[in-house]
Each structure stands twice: as C-alpha cells, then as structure tokens.
Write a structure and sequence with these properties.
alpha/beta, Endonuclease, Chain A, 2 domains, ten-stranded mixed sheet, seven-stranded mixed sheet, 10 helices, 26% strand, disordered N terminus
Length: 339
C-alpha cells in the first residue's frame, strides 16, 4: 500500500483531506459464536486463535491496547513474537493489570503500561507491523471470546494503523489518557479500495456529537446492538428519526436496561421503534449501529457519557453495503434470540 492520493468525499464531514489507499482485500469481519451449554471443549477455534495466528506472522512490531486480557493463547503468541525479536508492547487498564496473562508477558520482558486512573482505558485494538489492525468490541478474554457476543475486524491499512499507532504512543509513551489525550489523529477520513472510512477516538474527538450527526442523516433505517446505552443525545437522535418515519430497531444487553439511565425505556415508548433485550445468558457486548443498510459504526465505544467524556475509546465508521451486510446478518441473529 504505497500509493496514496487526496480525494474529495461528500459522505464525510469535510474537516480535512481524505487519504485514499488502493483496493484489494482489506478487511475480515469476525463474530463470536457462544454455544450452550457452556463446556470447556467448546473453547477452541475462536478469535483468540485467529489473533494468535496473526501475531505469529509479525516481523517487526506488535502493539496491544487491551482493557481486559486473560487469554493464554494470545499471551503465548506475544511472548513467542518477543523471543524472535519482534517489538511487543501492551497498554491496559489499571483495574486489570494483575491478570495472570498480563503478568506472564511482563515477566517475559514485554513492557506494560496501565492508565493509573479511575476512568477506564477501554480500547481493544492490536497493531501488527504498522499495517494490520484488529479492533472491535472484543475483549481479549475467555468470556469475551467464548461466552459473550462480540465483533472484531482485521483491517489491512497502513494509514489506519498510523492512526491507532498515534493513539497507542500517546498512552504508552506520553501517559495521555482520557480528556488529556490530544486530538491529533493523522487520518480521520480515508478511502480504502473506494470505501469511505472515518476513524475517531474518544473523548478527544467528540464522538457522541459525530454519531448524533450521522444518525440525523439516516433516510430509511437505524439498527443497533448495545451493551450499554445511556447517552441521551444519541437516543434522542434515534427517537427523532423514528418520528420522521425511519425504521429503528435495537437490541439492548438486558443487564442494566431496566434502570432509569438506560435509553431502553425511552425508546420503547416511541411509535415506530422496536427494541428488545438480548437472549445471551452471559453478555451481548456489541457496540454497533447500522444506518441505511450501508453505514456501520463499530469499536469499543459504548453509547454512554463515560465513553464520550472520560474513557479511552476508538470508533470506526465504514460506509460500504457489503461490509454492512455482515453486520446486518449478525443483527438478525441477535434479534431473533432477543426478547
């Protein structure tokens, strides 16, 4: 990916130049598939093994920003990479720094930085050789891999990797977390193989306001899957579009959705809105919005004030119907199992 161009793109907000990268296969979408009853023999062949295989191909560097991390498979892959001369680094949340997997890689000589604060470092991304990026809702944990509903994307993009590397360096070297993190993403707007991609980090990029604006542009449908949804402005934007005739459907994680802070009750009262509570006996952990069957919002960003104002989060907005079709299929699976 060594050819770059500057293009104009009406889909994006026009705040700066749009970098274009050439086409070819550049993404792979993954969804977890919890099985019941929950048995140890089912805990194989998951995302942990896919990520470990990706790390095994690393030649120069692997940077990991993981809110929670207890996967032995991934820890072993990181240690093996470090032993063969690959630079490996980890940023994690201070609440989870004592996980055995974290301590094992630290013991192997891999440097670990935690955020040392009350709000959380909630990212879940991995950058390999400054060109391959993993991100999504997936925590690097046994529960996240084999019990909870999650999504992850593996993306081949030098420029997206640059964005995430800049964010990683802020945390790892600069110890800049939360509101103190600078708004300096190199390429917030991209085209990859002709597909428009937006990339933002919270709280510095005012992600909540950007999502409200995006929702306000919905013409036909809004579908979402939300682990936590307490952000009233985002909820209000959905209510407004429903009242304007846009189809709004959503699945909430059932835990916490009965509180006064949740948008579940508010949305349920609106004509034209259909909302359900998830059917996973563990956790439905997605943070996904699908607009007009062609725009997907994904990442670590829960639809909450904490995500918008305090935590460290990342968001991708991908404008592509083929990409969106995979998330719509997951939505239909989750919807069918919901109550």
């Amino acid at each position: 990916l060594d050819w770059l161009g500057i293009v104009d793109l009406d889909l994006l907000d026009g705040s700066g130049p749009v970098i274009e990268e050439p086409g070819g296969p550049w993404y792979q979408v993954y969804f977890t598939a919890p099985r019941y009853p929950d048995k140890d023999e089912y805990h194989t062949g998951g995302l942990d093994e896919r990520l470990a295989d990706s790390i095994a191909e690393a030649q120069k560097s692997v940077d990991v920003a993981a809110y929670d991390f207890d996967l032995t498979t991934v820890a072993q892959a990181l240690i093996a990479a470090q032993k063969r001369g690959v630079q490996v680094r980890l940023v994690t949340d201070t609440d989870n720094v004592d996980e055995q997997a974290v301590r094992s890689i630290e013991k192997a000589g891999i440097p670990v930085v935690d955020d040392e604060r009350g709000a959380i470092m909630h990212n879940k991304f991995v950058i390999i050789d400054e060109s391959t990026l993993w991100t999504g809702s997936w925590n690097l944990t046994e529960n996240g891999t084999y019990r909870n509903n999650n999504n992850a994307v593996m993306l081949q993009s030098v420029r997206l990797a640059e964005n995430y590397s800049a964010e990683f360096e802020e945390m790892f070297r600069g110890k800049d977390f939360g509101p103190g993190s600078p708004a300096d993403t190199p390429h917030p707007q991209l085209k990859i193989g002709g597909v428009a991609v937006e990339n933002y980090f919270a709280p510095e990029d005012q992600v909540g306001a950007k999502l409200v604006s995006l929702l306000e542009s919905a013409d036909s449908s809004i579908r979402f899957m939300a682990f936590s949804f307490t952000h009233d402005e985002i909820g209000q934007a959905m209510r407004n579009r429903a009242l304007a005739g846009v189809t709004v459907q959503g699945v909430f994680e059932d835990r916490g959705s009965d509180t006064k802070y949740s948008e579940y009750g508010k949305l349920k009262k609106v004509d034209g809105v259909e909302v359900r509570l998830d059917g996973n006996r563990y956790i439905m952990h997605h943070k996904v919005i699908i607009i007009d069957d062609e725009i997907v919002v994904l990442g670590s960003f829960n639809f909450s004030a904490s995500a918008d104002e305090k935590n460290d989060e990342n968001v991708l907005v991908i404008h592509d119907a083929d990409f969106a079709a995979q998330y719509l299929a997951e939505f239909q699976r989750i919807w069918a199992d919901a109550n």
